[in-house]
């Protein structure tokens, strides 16, 4: 609310958030009702399907898994003590600058009461230092200065030792310019060039680089710098975040599925699309379970592996260059999520989420019963606790059972009281399906638009031309795909929001521009970002 008690038009607390109103047009489809196949029921697919269905388009969502949510799906399990539970691929932070994802979730939860904020984002190093963001001012540059003033691992002396000229790209981040300048450099190389202090490397690697499930020596520096802008140097929303009060299916995806069904959309889970064939003026034929179905338009909203599979099986889609780019997409290293149901509680002062560094494979620890209702009810009944461990970017050559055992040992080093706890049950989830934003890969990543205007792509690997990442990139790309189709049919588009699209300070932007080396913006081939 504003000081006058009126609701702000902004989606968060940052009054410099950037608004992109949808193109004007009719409120709903009239006359011929186009049929759209949305292939994939994760965030990107749902963000595509919902605006289309709300405007009268006949939408069918195909999801190969039994439930919606994609990489944030959940599924029922039964523990060894007989308790029902919901397993998932693990903790995800819903940051306050995820404006478009939040706009999607507000369709079924206008007040976002299904999300609860965690009080801090603590980061602990095995050497004893711990950083946090709860008491750091949100608005740049006060956020950076406040963090330096409080951080035990990044102080004023470290700040003065940095290479100011090499660090100038951090002051004026824009898309796609950041990729033209830095996509050919690794995240690790960039931090070395700016003389980022060794003691604070966990701040960049654990908070930003490893959020992409990638080794920083393989991750594009452009993605790292963009993350700094989105979460710290460019946005006044800060680095605090929310989490769902219940498991993902119950809190998020099942309500959205019901919303789509109420709008007349068809949601077909456990249904894999095999092939998509252009059918001239008639649109596309989508092959499902050996049968062809006709659609006016298709949105491919799958993960990297699913997108490659469908495009490889659909020989007439797109053109040769587009198909080659899709075939060249790669996934990041495997990651592990281990969830333990313990027979005794962890100490009450332990945070609900803790990022870790220097503990081998262990990247973070979550105490789920601190916020998730299902886990909390289990602990009330049993007196135990539910703890989740993440290991990102695991060497594929490692023996998985050894990594699982070692991760639990590392938990004992972080939270010593767990060493004496008995394990009621444990589940280990290995996955290797997150996109790899490798060095020099930006130009060949797909955009939302394709050579066929009725064929769109959405997902967190997609180039949007906007300062978004991770779950927010998935949601934004879905809205963009829906808008591209609505524009063709003369229907009003969805309004999008992002963090500021340039650095917040005009003098600093000028300084960054003057500090660029000649030809820096031409280091990556520039193709249309969307």
Please sum up the structure shown.
With 530 residues, the protein is of the alpha+beta class. The chain has helices spanning 43-54, 99-105, 142-150, 156-161, 177-182, 187-193, 201-205, 221-233, 248-262, 304-313, 320-327, 373-382, 400-414, 470-488, 506-515, and strands at 18-20, 35-39, 58-62, 74-78, 84-88, 94-95, 115-117, 123-125, 130-131, 241-244, 266-268, 273-278, 284-288, 291-295, 297-300, 335-342, 353-357, 364-367, 385-391, 423-431, 455-457, 496-498.
What does the secondary structure layout of this molecule look like, with pairings?
Layout: E1 18-20, E2 35-39, H1 43-54, E3 58-62, E4 74-78, E5 84-88, E6 94-95, H2 99-105, E7 115-117, E8 123-125, E9 130-131, H3 142-150, H4 156-161, H5 177-182, H6 187-193, H7 201-205, H8 221-233, E10 241-244, H9 248-262, E11 266-268, E12 273-278, E13 284-288, E14 291-295, E15 297-300, H10 304-313, H11 320-327, E16 335-342, E17 353-357, E18 364-367, H12 373-382, E19 385-391, H13 400-414, E20 423-431, E21 455-457, H14 470-488, E22 496-498, H15 506-515
Parallel strand pairs: 2-3, 2-15, 3-11, 8-17, 15-21
Antiparallel strand pairs: 1-22, 4-5, 6-10, 7-10, 8-9, 12-13, 13-14, 16-19, 16-20, 17-18, 18-19
Helix pairs in contact: 1-9, 1-14, 2-14, 6-8
